[in-house]
């Protein structure tokens, strides 16, 4: 007797003349196909969409920065002349720089009565401050007006990612034009290192920050202290990391197989139960007629 390879077929076929179509089976089959299509489209959308996951850890992510953080500041002082405006930087490593001018620009406002300061500079990764003041001016004004609007204050690389909503420019739009002109302003910043890694593994380093502020007129034994706009910062030891991820192909295929197989199995059980109950009910009705 020749070997018949068809013995290995576990999916034996039933001749069509031995099967019986029903309206209930047709309804269940259509609903089953629609349900599978809905789940398939949902899984396909999740498969082609890039997911951004975040995690927290304790470390310095940008060890190649040389212990520096790039800062971008854009601020307008509408009632203070440009020749009076300066940027001072100091920190706990002993840095004390008055009148920082590198990579900075002063733009006159209100026909020269005001000034817009734009600057890019770096700070050390230690607690410190930088402040906008008149300390670097040749002659100190009697009553400097420190009312201002902050257009931008950011640290590190600029992240423009749709799925990441962080406080990268928390002070952007801060308006202090109605404040006391002679008051100093203290902005207390807590800087949080942030890493964004795309699908290719390329990393970008930025910094988010939280802010608290206060306004005050300071005095000493010699009289009123010249006001300034202070940005006092400290770094958080916690790093936030955002990572782009896409669902693996094998997981997508596994999920689709589970959807199709599970749906057809449940639908088959449901159809079998309905058909068996229907046949039993018909027999009961025939028994009553006899």
Percentage of β-strand residues? 35-45%
Domain tally: 2
Number of strands: 15
- Basic shape: elongated
Largest sheet: 13 strands, mixed
Radius of gyration, taken over Cα atoms and rounded to an integer in Å: 35 Å
Could you say which structural class the secondary elements and strand pairing correspond to?
alpha+beta
- Elements, N to C (H/E): HEEEEEEEEEEEEEEEH
Helix content: 10-25%
- Number of distinct helices: 2
Question: Can you describe this structure?
Answer:
It is a multi-pass membrane protein. Belongs to the ERGIC family. The structure is a single chain. By secondary structure, this protein is an alpha+beta fold. The chain has two domains: 22-51 and 246-279; 59-237, no CATH class. The protein is 23% helix and 37% strand. It is built from two helices and 15 strands. It has helices at residues 23-48, 249-289; strands at 51-58, 68-77, 86-91, 96-97, 104-109, 114-124, 128-133, 149-156, 174-175, 184-197, 203-216, 219-220, 223-224, 229-235, 238-245. Strands 1, 2, 3, 4, 5, 6, 7, 8, 9, 10, 11, 14 and 15 form a 13-stranded mixed β-sheet that branches. A hairpin with a 5-residue loop joins β10 (184-197) and β11 (203-216). α1 (23-48) runs antiparallel to α2 (249-289). The longest helix has 41 residues, at 249-289. The chain is elongated, with a radius of gyration of 35 Å. The two termini are 53 Å apart.
């Amino acid at each position: 007797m020749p070997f018949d390879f068809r013995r290995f077929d576990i999916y034996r076929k039933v001749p069509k003349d031995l099967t019986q179509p029903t309206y209930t089976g047709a309804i269940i089959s259509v609903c089953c196909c629609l349900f599978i299509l809905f789940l398939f489209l949902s899984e396909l959308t999740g498969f082609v969409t890039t997911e951004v996951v975040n995690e927290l850890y304790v470390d310095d992510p940008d060890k190649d920065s040389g212990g520096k953080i790039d800062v971008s500041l854009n601020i307008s002082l509408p009632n203070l002349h440009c020749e009076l405006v300066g940027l001072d930087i100091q920190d706990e490593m002993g840095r004390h720089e008055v009148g920082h001018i590198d990579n900075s620009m002063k733009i006159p406002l209100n026909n020269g009565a005001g000034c817009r300061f734009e600057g890019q500079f770096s700070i050390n990764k230690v607690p410190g401050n930088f402040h906008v003041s008149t300390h670097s001016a040749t002659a100190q004004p009697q009553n400097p007006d420190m009312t201002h609007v902050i257009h931008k204050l950011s640290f590190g690389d600029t992240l423009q990612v749709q799925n990441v909503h962080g406080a990268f420019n928390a002070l952007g739009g801060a308006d202090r034009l109605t404040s006391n002109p002679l008051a100093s302003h203290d902005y207390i910043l807590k800087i949080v290192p942030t890493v964004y890694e795309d699908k290719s593994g390329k990393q970008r380093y930025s910094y988010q920050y939280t802010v608290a502020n206060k306004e005050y007129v300071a005095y000493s034994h010699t009289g009123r202290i010249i006001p300034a706009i202070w940005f006092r910062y400290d770094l958080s030891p916690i790093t936030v990391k955002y990572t782009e991820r896409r669902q693996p192909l094998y997981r997508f295929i596994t999920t689709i197989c589970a959807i199709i197989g599970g749906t057809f199995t449940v639908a088959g059980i449901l159809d079998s139960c309905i058909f068996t109950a229907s046949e039993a009910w018909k027999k009961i009705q025939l028994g009553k007629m006899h």
